[in-house]
Amino acid sequence: MIGSISVAQSPQASAVLVLEDGTRYSGRAYGATGTALGEVVFATGMSGYQETLTDPSYAGQIVLQTAPHIGNTGMNHEDNESGRIWVAGYIVRDPARRVSSWRAEESLDDALVRDGIVGISGIDTRALTRRIRSEGAMRGGIFSGPDAGLDADEQLRRVVEAPEMAGRNLSAAVSVTEVRVIPATAERIGNLAVLDLGIKQSTLDNLARLGFDVHVLPQSASFADILATDPVGVFYSNGPGDPSASDDQVAVLRQVLDARLPYFGICFGNQLFGRALGLQTYKLAFGHRGINQPVLDRTTGQVEITAHNHGFAVDAPREETFDSPNGYGAVEVSHIGLNDQVVEGLRAHDIPAFSVQYHPEAAAGPHDAHYLFARFRDLVLSSLGTGQEHTSEGDAK
């Protein structure tokens, strides 16, 4: 294994970041050169940049890292959450000049170039983060190499003509196109139908470790396609885009709930669960992205530090149990974000279904919410009437 990889030290081209409000930040090209357009958002994790970059949920977004030093540990194939880097563009302050990890197989710079990701470095990322926090996430463009020399008005025109995240359905861009099956790696429970809306590999690995033969289905799968797997449960994954633009997946989920199949949804799957119950979703000002978000599990009273990546949220009554507008009985908000009181989880009382807005697989950490996978396993076992459900150390949280 390579212990130290030097990053190419050729002269760096100039680059500029342009926000849709006309704000400009000058810096140096990082990764591929050219133009990148997308919604500029910030991620607060101090580690785990590889998992962030390869998370399909970041499709369409230019990701700003608030941690100043990025790239120190390089990239390796083992930690990838998918087969490629998905971010639309990348913003860092101080990229590593040398990779220092025995697990590194290439530098981050080389990986960005390989996957054609246009980035910018050397800007005041703290000032940019503060601007997004005060003004909200907005469209932006990174222009580097020859494109950095484009007329400022032309650069701004390209930014403001780029599509907004609100109203966008990006599931088809990140989902599998054919069914993929991952065999159970523990005592087998049965088949789990997983709708891939932008799922991460670590999520699939966790589901297989529960004892499920995991059938990963395309985002276009019908209820008949789900039933064809002979499922003991259904899982909706994380993913990019606006949940209000995913009516087809919501309609399929309502059929799942009508059939009383055990359901677990995370992130985008939480938002679609909310809409299936009859609730509305809305766009957050700047969203939650990072691996340090505090959430209260109202079932246990425990506070968890969790991994997030969402720019939309479910609008639901927070203080008491309420009736599902679509007739699925009593529902409660099971988890609350402690930074801003955003709904972070839903639990139905009269059907076997629950969801959370964050990522319990938490690659690359923390693992406070990992018990949710076991909670779903026990829900499935209870639905099957096996009497095998049990409480492990993780469930006791």
Automatic annotation (TrEMBL):
<dbReference type="InterPro" id="IPR035686">
    <property type="entry name" value="CPSase_GATase1"/>
</dbReference>
<dbReference type="InterPro" id="IPR002474">
    <property type="entry name" value="CarbamoylP_synth_ssu_N"/>
</dbReference>
<feature type="domain" description="Carbamoyl-phosphate synthase small subunit N-terminal">
    <location>
        <begin position="13"/>
        <end position="143"/>
    </location>
</feature>
<dbReference type="InterPro" id="IPR017926">
    <property type="entry name" value="GATASE"/>
</dbReference>
<comment type="subunit">
    <text>Composed of two chains; the small (or glutamine) chain promotes the hydrolysis of glutamine to ammonia, which is used by the large (or ammonia) chain to synthesize carbamoyl phosphate. Tetramer of heterodimers (alpha,beta)4.</text>
</comment>
<feature type="binding site">
    <location>
        <position position="312"/>
    </location>
    <ligand>
        <name>L-glutamine</name>
    </ligand>
</feature>
<comment type="pathway">
    <text>Amino-acid biosynthesis; L-arginine biosynthesis; carbamoyl phosphate from bicarbonate: step 1/1.</text>
</comment>
<feature type="active site" description="Nucleophile">
    <location>
        <position position="267"/>
    </location>
</feature>
<dbReference type="Pfam" id="PF00117">
    <property type="entry name" value="GATase"/>
</dbReference>
<keyword id="KW-0315">Glutamine amidotransferase</keyword>
<dbReference type="InterPro" id="IPR006274">
    <property type="entry name" value="CarbamoylP_synth_ssu"/>
</dbReference>
<feature type="active site">
    <location>
        <position position="359"/>
    </location>
</feature>
<protein>
    <recommendedName>
        <fullName>Carbamoyl phosphate synthase small chain</fullName>
        <ecNumber>6.3.5.5</ecNumber>
    </recommendedName>
</protein>
<dbReference type="InterPro" id="IPR029062">
    <property type="entry name" value="Class_I_gatase-like"/>
</dbReference>
<keyword id="KW-0436">Ligase</keyword>
<comment type="similarity">
    <text>Belongs to the CarA family.</text>
</comment>
<feature type="binding site">
    <location>
        <position position="311"/>
    </location>
    <ligand>
        <name>L-glutamine</name>
    </ligand>
</feature>
<comment type="function">
    <text>Small subunit of the glutamine-dependent carbamoyl phosphate synthetase (CPSase). CPSase catalyzes the formation of carbamoyl phosphate from the ammonia moiety of glutamine, carbonate, and phosphate donated by ATP, constituting the first step of 2 biosynthetic pathways, one leading to arginine and/or urea and the other to pyrimidine nucleotides. The small subunit (glutamine amidotransferase) binds and cleaves glutamine to supply the large subunit with the substrate ammonia.</text>
</comment>
<feature type="binding site">
    <location>
        <position position="271"/>
    </location>
    <ligand>
        <name>L-glutamine</name>
    </ligand>
</feature>
<feature type="binding site">
    <location>
        <position position="239"/>
    </location>
    <ligand>
        <name>L-glutamine</name>
    </ligand>
</feature>
<feature type="binding site">
    <location>
        <position position="268"/>
    </location>
    <ligand>
        <name>L-glutamine</name>
    </ligand>
</feature>
<comment type="pathway">
    <text>Pyrimidine metabolism; UMP biosynthesis via de novo pathway; (S)-dihydroorotate from bicarbonate: step 1/3.</text>
</comment>
<feature type="active site">
    <location>
        <position position="361"/>
    </location>
</feature>
<feature type="binding site">
    <location>
        <position position="241"/>
    </location>
    <ligand>
        <name>L-glutamine</name>
    </ligand>
</feature>
<keyword id="KW-0665">Pyrimidine biosynthesis</keyword>
<feature type="binding site">
    <location>
        <position position="57"/>
    </location>
    <ligand>
        <name>L-glutamine</name>
    </ligand>
</feature>
<dbReference type="InterPro" id="IPR036480">
    <property type="entry name" value="CarbP_synth_ssu_N_sf"/>
</dbReference>
<dbReference type="InterPro" id="IPR050472">
    <property type="entry name" value="Anth_synth/Amidotransfase"/>
</dbReference>
<keyword id="KW-0055">Arginine biosynthesis</keyword>
<dbReference type="Pfam" id="PF00988">
    <property type="entry name" value="CPSase_sm_chain"/>
</dbReference>
<feature type="region of interest" description="CPSase">
    <location>
        <begin position="1"/>
        <end position="188"/>
    </location>
</feature>
<feature type="binding site">
    <location>
        <position position="309"/>
    </location>
    <ligand>
        <name>L-glutamine</name>
    </ligand>
</feature>
<keyword id="KW-0067">ATP-binding</keyword>
<keyword id="KW-0028">Amino-acid biosynthesis</keyword>
<keyword id="KW-0547">Nucleotide-binding</keyword>
